[in-house]
């Protein structure tokens, strides 16, 4: 059983503690184990952990940064529940520092008073079940636009690029939540898409500056490595300033109300939470970062699994078509209650294809014990939820796509998204858990329901050759 955290160790004893943790051979000077992390880190890390790990733990030296990889449900439970208070921080990153106004947003902010405040704003003001419901007409409208494009292609038997359509769809839904009706003016929704992609390139990779913080302290290196991030941040700043300004200049009577967008809400709680202009911009920007790609990847994989499993597509179509009154033009959110197979289908997709397979890295703030191993403070932690969700110790036929396991009577029937089952963590768990679950699931379900209600899907013949 894990014991309580103790005060941080000195550098020497920290190194001593690290040297006792299970770690793979092949560590090189300077880069450490970085060369072992391939193009699909969750896959290579699973294999390395199976070979060299112990008790679900494996220590890698990624550059100068000790990184603990967690690959068992018990160790994940220790990090996200029993010792959540120790592991709820984020490591310093020069890139997120620049992109997110001193990392003052909810996702990249280090643990502390400011993070509590901005996370609370996200969970109690921006992403509540009620707020998410208030955007249903906007979602249905965006779904309508996608359906029109597909209908047009279908009428001439043309293949559609679903990846592109669904990516734009996810981005537009979030643009609408952030800036309401203004999001389409002057093509601002497309600028959001472009900037979110630029951010992903900077954050998503294994960044040199993150692994060699000492390098960043040298002025020249910092200038070189961070120039791109500054450029991208400048463009975000111009766009967000313009939108916030447009909101401020609207009469107060138009700002409140049921369908108020994130900018309206943040402006209205600005004084209560002592938010600066930069805090507001950081928070708006992170919604794109955390919400767009993740939702889009989830949605795209649902369609992949539908096309791979025609029998299951027929079953899902039957459920949706039964539930929608005859002659209705499109499925609306009222029709979705009780669609248990749809719900299970999405859950099973997020099991096999977690959009954030290693979560967002956690960071320990004190020494503490996990499974009899002492983890020193200042350790970065990756939880391999992709590996946990395919581990035969926890799942029957783990590689098989079987939504039924999440249905009544199935082996995972009681598993939900809230991080209570440590073999199933697509949205993580504990203090750092994703606050966007309702938002994401609503977006995915309404789009999928309509895609299967209106169309039969198959891959174009040339893609099968
Ligand atoms: C299928 C879609 C999504 C998935 C799979 C997902 C998953 C995750 C994961 C794994 C984390 C990291 C948790 C951790 O560090 O332990 C996270 C954090 C976060 N997500 Fe999501 N997310 C999704 C959609 C969204 C949406 C739509 C929004 C907002 C509109 C959102 C907002 C956030 C925020 C603000 C955080 C940071 C929380 C923190 O650090 O305390 N997410 N999400």
UniProtKB/TrEMBL annotation:
It holds the Pfam family p450. One of its GO terms (cellular component) is membrane. It is found in: Membrane. Heme binds at residue 434. GO terms for molecular function: heme binding; iron ion binding; monooxygenase activity; oxidoreductase activity, acting on paired donors, with incorporation or reduction of molecular oxygen. Its main location: membrane. It comes from the Eukaryota. Keywords: Heme, Iron, Membrane, Metal-binding, Monooxygenase, Oxidoreductase, Signal, Transmembrane, Transmembrane helix. Its cofactor is heme. The keyword Transmembrane helix applies. Gene3D superfamilies: Cytochrome P450. Pathway: Secondary metabolite biosynthesis. Belongs to the cytochrome P450 family. This is Cytochrome P450 71C2. It comes from Panicum miliaceum (Proso millet).
